[in-house]
TrEMBL record:
This is ABC transporter ATP-binding protein. It comes from Pelagibius litoralis. Its main location: membrane. One of its GO terms (cellular component) is plasma membrane. Residues 2-249 form the ABC transporter domain. SUPFAM superfamilies: P-loop containing nucleoside triphosphate hydrolases (SSF52540). GO terms for molecular function: ATP binding; ATP hydrolysis activity. PANTHER family: NITRATE ABC TRANSPORTER ATP-BINDING PROTEIN, TAURINE IMPORT ATP-BINDING PROTEIN-RELATED. Belongs to the ABC transporter superfamily. It is found in: Cell membrane. It is a peripheral membrane protein. Pfam families: ABC_tran. It comes from the Bacteria.
């Protein structure tokens, strides 16, 4: 369970650059819930994820995970609870390390174990199994540098890395945005499977209205650092991409044009 209570984040406070990224954002997400998060540029989506990982400290408000107030916990302390996959396939992995070494680092996340201890023979077998399950023929390339993989292959490996250690929360920050449609579909299917198998509480930020409605069970729309729409169940299943686009435009005080529908 995640509870965000009245989160406030202001960057460059008191200067001409002051930005109020979160302005009293509150929401509660049940354990195992898969929530998609939409909102225009600058709405505060990544800042919310950064608050959950501990990379950004809110100036006010609280974050409670499974009943524990983690607001004051630094990012390394939260690493055992929260895993994240970024938009940029390069962001969450080390391209100069091999696939296997990247997996070993992920397996050691939130522990004090070094790379050598994390790369035992048993671990190697587990890594091979997990990577083989992707069906991308990468299990015989575990010694290849991560930098040699395509963007989609890297995102698939990043998802495996994120879920290698038991974690409670999975944060996906537009993790398919940089991929071609075929790889996008592959990584989304993999996401669905992993989230269901591990029963992860998941927040997926996306700019695609289609993805926002087709994945997960609930959608949040952020605007100016607050939740302005929160739909689930019947209400959400009745929504179509056009409805969501219209709501999106309405929140931003804009007219909905057919070009934006085509791009959704
Ligand atoms: N580290 C930072 N320093 C200064 N301003 C920041 C920082 N991070 C975010 N901001 C600003 O805070 C606001 C919210 O940013 P955020 O990245 O959370 O938006 P977003 O909804 O994820 O947008 P996008 O869809 O463009 O990624 C923006 O105006 C952004 O420029």
């Amino acid at each position: 369970m995640i509870r965000a209570e009245d989160l406030q984040v202001t960057f460059n406070a008191g200067t001409v650059m002051e930005t109020r990224a979160l302005q009293g954002l509150s929401t509660e997400i049940a354990a195992g819930e898969f929530v998609t998060v939409i909102g225009s540029n600058g709405a505060g989506k990544s800042t919310l994820l950064n608050c959950l990982t501990g990379e950004v400290a809110p100036s006010a408000g609280r974050i409670v995970i499974d009943g524990i107030d983690v607001t004051g916990w630094a990012a390394p302390r939260r690493a055992a609870l929260v895993a994240r996959v970024f938009q940029d396939p390069l962001a969450g992995t080390c391209e100069d390390l091999t696939i296997e070494e990247n997996l070993a680092l992920a397996a050691a996340r939130g522990t004090r174990r070094g790379l050598d201890k994390a790369l035992t023979a048993a671990r190697r077998g587990e890594f091979r199994d997990r990577i083989a399950r992707l069906g991308l023929n990468l299990e015989n390339r575990l010694g290849d540098r991560m930098g040699l993989l395509s963007g989609g292959q890297r995102q698939a490996v990043s998802l495996v890395m994120a879920t290698l250690r038991p974690t409670k929360i999975l944060l996906l920050d537009e993790h398919t945005a940089a991929l071609d449609p075929r790889m996008q579909a592959f990584v989304l299917d993999l996401t669905r499977d992993l989230v269901a198998a591990e029963q992860l509480t998941t927040l997926m930020v996306t700019h695609s209205m289609r993805q926002a409605l087709s994945l997960g069970t609930r959608s949040l729309m952020l605007h100016e650092g607050k939740v302005v729409l929160d739909v689930a169940g019947e209400e959400r299943s009745r929504l179509e991409v056009g409805d969501l686009m219209a709501l999106f435009a309405q929140v931003r005080g804009e007219e909905l044009d057919s070009d934006s529908l085509l791009l959704s």
